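Box S1 | Example of a co-folding query
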Amino acid sequence: MTPNFVPRADTNIPLYIVASDGLENTLEQLDLVARAWVVASGFTAKLAETCVIPKPDGTIQTVLAGWGDEKSRGHGRFHMASIAAKLPAGDYRIEAGLNQSERHEAGLAWLLGSYRFDRYTKKPAAKARLVEPFGVGNARVLIEAEGSFLTRDLINTPTNDMGPEQLEAAFFDLAKKFKAKVSSIVGDDLLRENLPMVHAVGRASDQKPRLLDMIWGDETHPKITLVGKGVCFDTGGLNIKPGASMGLMKKDMGGAANVMGLAHMIMALGLKIRLRVLVPAVENSISAGAFRPQDVLTSRKGLTVEINNTDAEGRLVLADALAMADEESPDFLVCMATLTGAARVALGPDVPPFFTDDNALAHKIAAASKATADPLWRLPFWDAYEGMIEPDMADLDNAPAGGMAGAITAALFLRRFVENAVQFVHLDMYGWTPIAKPGRPKGGEAQSIRAMLQVIEGLID
Ligand code: BES
Ligand code: MN
Ligand code: ZN
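Box S1 (continued) | Returned holo structure for BES
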């Protein structure tokens, strides 16, 4: 869906955002009757408390919404989404009570909270709509919401409507919208074009595996390449997942969905970069032709990989895509993937870990994460664990026994395929909100892309 908002309009309801210590001041701005109404209602400006002030004819004159104090706002962000959800139907403009950057975040929270995935069943749209302008970067808030909605839609769509073919169609649509060059290498062509591990993982599915490639922007600008894991469904392969673990695996293309959401933002903003997006789009399925435990695969880069678990498939398809990306020595290479259960065990669903060897970049990412309310936390490429991914039979082991430090060993595996990129970061995300939070409805979620957008903007100026 696209974000639901109201273009600049004359008829709208003024919304005052009132912090606990700003109540007196707000009351002074109201007429006597309105003031008496607020006092009689017992409104104290607690966080997300609302007070609807009527006109004499019974329609709404003004709404006050509590912003509480710093303590009650706590670590949470996007409180505006909770307020929006409580407001009576109508079109609102934020009249007072927030500074410019708070308005930006509030506008974004409002839009993100209005998301509905209604492809298969009708859902009532959000009743309270936000009227432009939302803050300093009006267009930017919209673009951020659009990119996030694209990501959520792609993840939420079940595999019967979002297999490798449909993911390719969505990828091509995105490219067309921004006049990017796009191509895909499909089925046995993957072998001819030397993407053997993308082929091996995806060949058991009825829908052919493929490598999607989009290029946009001026060749002379900094080269930034995004690689996203596009496993449209992860059964685990012959090492089949138990039912409970398979339940959410339509979201295993969450990395692809996130790089596409980020690409949307970058292209819509017209950033001065040369963008490339690579997505290995496959289904990790089961058939007589499936790849097996103990197979040894030769990767694009030439490194051999012993398969010790067909369920560690993400790193295989990403390894070939990363190697391909790395061949043109990009200035910045970003990998996004729902790669390991271990990342979620370590940090939970809402905080994706990121891995980079570049301390300056890590600091920029941490700062951008905070500024954009887009949680991320650094984990190390722990060099001393390199031995864990080296079996006897081949150069690399895709699933070290025991599974200790699973998110780190997966990250180390990927790093082996990146040599030339000037800067590299890998993000291991959950891509899903299991329990709804303000601005984050249950379901597919955009993670890290607002933070990474800010980081990328920082690299070019
Ligand atoms: N897609 C899964 C990882 C995953 C599972 C992400 C659950 C989010 C939630 C990945 O392909 C996988 O199955 N990884 C295995 C690797 C193991 C076999 C080495 C895992 O994490 O258990
Ligand atoms: Mn898997
Ligand atoms: Zn997977």
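The CA atoms of residues 352 and 429 lie 5 Å apart. The chain is about 35% helix and 20% strand.
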